[in-house]
Amino acid sequence: MLNILIAGPSTGASMNPVRTLGPAIAANNFKAIWIYLTAPILGALCGAGTYTAVKLPEEDGEKLSTVRSFQR
Q1: What was the pLDDT predicted at 30?
Q2: Which of 9, 14, 31, 35 could, after both became Cys, cross-link 20 (CB 3.0–4.6 A)?
Q3: CB-based contacts of 64, cutoff 8 Å, min separation 6
Q4: What per-residue string of b and e applies to 36-67 under the rule 16 or more CB within 10 Å gives b?
């Protein structure tokens, strides 16, 4: 709710990228379309990097044996 009330009016961005991309492509208006195409990729990379940095390393003797592969 705060995202809609604060970020939307101050930045002019929509909270649903499809509601922006569809009309922008139909109107041939590609002014700020790049942010909707690059932001999900950059967000995923930042999230994966943060997860890797924060994840605790496994101890050698305490590996989980409950995870099994489909291949035997």
Answers
A1: 84
A2: 14
A3: 58
A4: eeeeeeeeeeeeeeeeeeeeeeeeeeeeeeee
